[in-house]
Structure formats: structure tokens, C-alpha cells
Amino acid sequence: MPKHLVNKAATLASGVLAGCAMLLAGCAAPAPAATPTPEATPTPVVQEVSLLALDMYWDIERIEARANQPLRITLRNDGALDHNFEILELEVSVFLSPGETRVVEFIVDRQGIFHYLCSIPGHEEAGMAGELVVGSQDE
Questions:
Q1: Domain containing 25: what range?
Q2: Separation CA 12–CA 5 (nearest Å)
Q3: How far apart are CA 116 and CA 122, in angstroms?
Q4: What is the pTM for the complete model shown?
Q5: Structural domain includes residue 107
Q6: For 92-133, how does the pLDDT look when each residue is reduced to its tens digit (9 = 90+)?
Q7: What span, in angstroms and rounded, lies between the C-alpha atoms of 54 and 123?
Q8: Using an 8 Å Cβ cutoff, are 105 and 60 in contact?
Q9: Number of H helices, E strands in the chain
Q10: Torsion on CA atoms 9, 11, 15, 17, rounded to nearest 10
């Protein structure tokens, strides 16, 4: 075949192939829509408090917290006697032997004043009591 016909055939074939490629690209399934990723729920900040039990008193008599915010209380018994941290209204109770450290974490779902005490007989009467004051989330 003469050279000028070979060039025309090659050009024609290239054009046909390019046209077919464009046609196929237009017929291809559309790209799937991006799936939105769910927004991460912010993790509430944990309020941390350390409460020391000594013989016949707590080192803090008032703890302030917010409703619906996790509260972590680290309890340490530096006394010579057994003690028990208890909040009756919230069903929280932690026993501490002398020298023991324990951690309790909970969420109070409402505002109010909740009394904590040592429930060992005679300890509350001797002064081992305090209050947990829970305010609104906006305070």
C-alpha cells in the first residue's frame, strides 16, 4: 500500500479509536456519590476531683459539678480506720480500707444537692459528710 494511504488509514483508525473511547466513557456508570461521614460526637470532658478520707472528716466538704457531665472522684483513705464514701440518692458506694485509693466515675443526670457521707456507724455524726452540688450544663 502506498505510504500516503497508510498514513490516512492510520489517522482514520486513530480517530475511530478516540471516538469509541469517548463514547464508552460517556456510557460508563456514573461515579458513586461520596458517602458523607457522620460527624463525631464530642466526648464530654470528665471533671476530676480528689477526695481524701481522714479519720472522721473528708478534706473537701463541697464538690461542684455539672449535670450530664462525667464526674470522676479519686478517693484515698489516709486514716487509720475503714471508711465508705456513699451518695445514697445516686446509689454510689465505695469502701476504703486504710491506705487504699479507689476511683469512682458516674454521671448525674439532674441538678440538685446530693449529700455524701461515710456510712460507717458514727462517722457521719463525727463530721464525715459533705455535699455534691450539681448545676446546669450552662454554668
A1: 1-30
A2: 10
A3: 14
A4: 0.69
A5: yes
A6: 999 999 999 999 999 999 999 999 999 999 999 999 999 999
A7: 11
A8: no
A9: 2, 9
A10: 70
